[in-house]
Amino acid sequence: MRPVTVLSVVGARPNFMKMAPVLRQLARAPQFSSVLVHTGQHYDESMSGVFLRELAMPEPDFRLEVGSGTHAAQTAAVLQRFELVCLDVKPDLVVVAGDVNSTLACALAAVKLEIPVAHLEAGLRSFDRRMPEEINRILTDSIAQLLFTTEASGIANLRREGVAAEQVHFVGNTMIDSLVLCRDALEPMDAVGSYLLATVHRPANVDTADHLAQVLDILEAASALAPVYFVTHPRTRARLAHQAARPRLVQIDAPPAQPEPGVVYLLPPLPYLEFFRLMSYSAAVLTDSGGVQEETTFLGVPCLTLRENTERPSTVTLGTNELVGLDRERVQACLETILCGRWKAAAVPPLWDGHAAERVLDVLRARFRPD
Ligand code: UD1
What we know:
By secondary structure, this protein is α/β, with parallel strands linked by helices. It has helices at residues 13-28, 45-54, 71-89, 101-112, 132-143, 152-160, 174-183, 203-206, 209-223, 234-240, 272-280, 290-299, 314-317, 328-339, 356-367; strands at residues 4-10, 32-38, 62-63, 93-97, 117-122, 146-149, 168-170, 196-199, 228-231, 249-251, 264-267, 284-287, 303-305, 321-323. The chain is 43% helix and 16% strand. The site of uridine-diphosphate-N-acetylglucosamine (UD1) has 20 residues, from helix 1, helix 2, helix 5 and helix 10.
């Protein structure tokens, strides 16, 4: 019998940890033939190559090499190039993850060729349409046939948008599968709880000089309580070059042996395991990333999200996360509570247990069962 061909897509950094566990399960299932496409939305060694290796992902069968560009140019390049791959491979299913431009572009190319699409991390909504990711989420979910959700809000959102219940499968969080798998490889650290970790890269926070200055004010104030490691995405790095010099900001390549309070250490993008280690042992994380909100909740590390909304509300209602916007006083007050050990009690959301990809495969097996 001909195996079922599953064409999986990765494009940008947050896709790798969501897709790796599913690829691992597909490789073990003889009824499926797994083909991997890397769109090249992220292309640097530090944003892509090192993640493929650390997560033990297979070498992509196709590299589309679309690179950076405006939203329209990037999305259009993926659309055109991914359509050619679909015509060549003729997959039975295309699997996309998350909310990046590659997610939407590949889903759109596939459905126009009448190839069914499965969306990992479906149903999340920030209800803020100024976020490019929110548009990608809404549109991808509206054309995908199989919607794999990570949390209760995703199921409720899809129901409200009129998606049929039989299309929606609550499987849990495949990104947490990657954490669980790599947890044992983490090396211990002496400096547990003695520093703060920050990541900020959303256009809303870094693309205007005024907002980026507010972010830096927040991090500088926080550093008075504990040294801050600010891991910078290339987008943030580029914007920082246009800011006035700040003596408290110190550029380094790796965390120093003796970090000093009052300093914000600027680090380059870090490999998965190194970032995971810094996150695990930090006193608290300040971020505007979606994935980091979830990972800190899983790890039980307090998280302050420098946004007014989140598409991952279970990290706030159940987990360690709190939305603080760009409110410096609120951040200081929260950090003082955290450093006194009085942060809210938190739980890990249901099915964030390291077995989400197995549940994805169960659904795929049932869907493609030979008659
Ligand atoms: C993308 C995703 C965002 C995700 C983020 C994680 C969309 C709409 N956004 O945003 O949801 O949180 O990835 O990283 O898809 N660059 C490099 N090297 C690279 C890739 C990018 O230097 O490998 C630089 C380029 O100058 C580029 C800028 O980073 O212009 C932004 O990259 P881009 O892919 O446009 O969006 P992200 O901000 O990374």
